Amino acid sequence: MRFIFVLFILFSSLWSQKNLEKVSIQLDWKFQYEFAGFVAAKEKGFYRDVGLDVDLREYHNSVDTASDIINRKATYGSYNSSIIISGGKPAPVVLLGTYLQRSPLVFAVRKGINNPADLIGKKIMATKDELRSSSLGLMLNHFEITPANATILLHSFDINDFINGKCDAITVFRSNQLYELDRLNIPYSVIDPADYGFVMSAVNVFTSRNEALENPERTQKFIEATNRGWKYALDHPDEIIDLLLNKYNTGKSRDALVYEYKVTKKLMMTDFYPIGQANEELTVRAYKQLVQSGRLLVGQKLGKFMFQDIIASNNDVQMTTAQKHYLLNKKKIVMCVDPEWYPFEAIRDGRHIGIAADVMSEFEKRLGVPIEFHPVESWEESITLAKKRECDILSLASSTPERLQYMDFTSPYVTLPIVMATKMDKPFTEDITSLGNVKLGSVKGYAITEQLKTHYPDLNLVEVASITDGLNRVESGELYGYIDNLMVVSSYIQKEHTGMLKVSLRLKEKVELSVGTRNDEPILKDIFEKLVLGMDPILMQRFYNRYTTVIREQNPYGIIVLSVLALVALISALMIGWNYLLRKKVHLEVAKNLQIKDQLYQKAKQAEIGSLIANISHQWREPLSKLSSLNLLTIAKIRMGQPIEKEWLLEQSQKIENTIDFMSHTMQNFLEFYKQNSVRSDFSAYDSIESSISIIETKILDFGVLVVIEGEDTVLNGVKNEWMQVWLNLLNNAVQVFSERKIENPTIRIEVSSNRIMFCDNGGGIDLGISSSGLGLPMCKEIVGKYGARLEVDNCDRGVCVTVVLRSVCDMKK
Predict the structure, then answer these.
(1) Which of 322, 393, 568, 711 has its CA 20 to 30 A from that of 454?
(2) Alpha helix locations (H) across 208-268?
(3) 10 Å Cβ neighbour count for 554?
(4) Tens digit of each residue's pLDDT (9 = 90 or more) over 680-691
């Protein structure tokens, strides 16, 4: 009986093992406490509990972790950056979790090497992955350290190569090799990329995009079991150290592993982050630094990269299995657009803008697949590319018999009337056929043009290159009129032909605009049909409002009636004689309005406290982490009984003091800004601007914005924090534009003189007819107007210039 029971247990165990799904994770270093969570999850059966048989693969120099993940040679992989680059582009991988919130990766260098620039001409030992996209790789790139001016050696994973002089600098972990160097009393210095602004995380776990989408449940189980393993490893360090010593060839002593456990626990920062939580903010910052370094090609989008976001976007639109596989294999969707059809869409400074651009951006979020526009010079070129199958979709197009030969079309998501624009002296008409043989323009290749040819074959229709070309010809008299949809015509008249052109005819036809999709891949039409039908009407209206104003058609007969009524009203008002009462009422209302404006300003400013507190928290997170890291090394040395040199201690203390000064300065500026104050005083313009910059300094650094202040300081008079509100609004507006438009090398140039202060950016300019959001430019004008100054907004060569024209300090005091 006992024998049968044993056989039953053995058989059950074998059957259980047989049913486990085999997966693997490629580690990016040798076995050590850095990977204790994975070891604990495997050895304690956490992976087995969720049906996984996980193969832990140790790193060696012939391994290309990124390639193995992308090509699915390994199911998962750990990496020293939260972004993986492949061919100058973000690799098609998904970030599952981050376990070291601050990277311990640094250079151990010989004494006498004091900064990265000193590495020129030296021998540097590192792995291929570390040189590719880690914080060390970014730092080397920034200081122009290349194989041409330094000797790069592949890592031997033996600290003796540094000790014996085979290299001058070697990549090490603070939690690892530094312990051994200190134990042997080997003199060295540390170059930490964080000290130069290159801050990254480590032990970032990735999988391929295909694996995440095809096996989301398995991926989620792997994440949960790994997080459970890390919790166990942190709670039971002695047990895991025994496992590493007895079962995994770490080549380390127990004391070394104990030291590594303590440093690893600190770097996980579990007081701030749950185990395994990916730091999206840090990843976005790394992405911008990689773009600036040239490691990422210009124009590459980061897109959705976190597992939860990828799965959420995939579930947002209910795709069939066939549609999911199509998108997985497609990888990106190439879009052709009309480069001159604002406000629907246009290309400005290499960017796709307008209503259609916002719609496509929303579709991209819901698809989880990049939609990339193909640069073109004209709509006709887009049509040609679509015929050649070089475009997958047309962002905004009408169905015509000719286009149906190569495109399918979704349900329309824009429907508008067709109108004609003429010069101001032309009469209003209601029938286009009554115009006779006059020349009328329409863009070549537009569906409207084909409609006109079909419905009105006798029209003298002239095909023009673009709406700008057509309206210019109308203004010059070459054409009688130009025909297009109401929104586009009205927008261009308001911006470029005010007082010269008008809308004088509305046709009975309408234009219906859809997404055009290549008809040799019909599944693409089904996908975009779901997106169009699922579009939120409120969101769509928001897109309209962003680019358009209210448009009213004016009939000349209506104007006459309104004029007569206005005249009668004026005469009646004069006869009744209410002048005195009206003046009194106006006086009271003006006073009330001024009081309301002041209250609104104060409330709006108070409402910003949440945002400002978030800024302070954001500003302080990195300094706090730096303080923790500085103290960590000191505490570790004391606990291990290692000698602490006076010079080293003074250096650490000075770094701590500098960091505390920064935090104190930031808080002081914050308090000064928010402090309720109505006392006018003289103050330095430079000081108020620099104080404003310091409040959002981390945001400025995160977006890679260069702020330059030029000119000679001047004295301003007034309530200082009100002036700071103006500077903050101008800075935030510029940073927001840089973020939305993905501006390369974003720059804010501030010029200060005795008679003006000018803020200029290279964000591409704005529509001067649309007011800004939040406190906005109108509130800024109110503030500076209180002190006799004037605010002017103009588009310059590459962006916007906002000029505050000052009066003398004496006039301000008056």
Answers:
(1) 393
(2) 209-214, 216-235, 237-247, 254-268
(3) 12
(4) 888 888 888 988
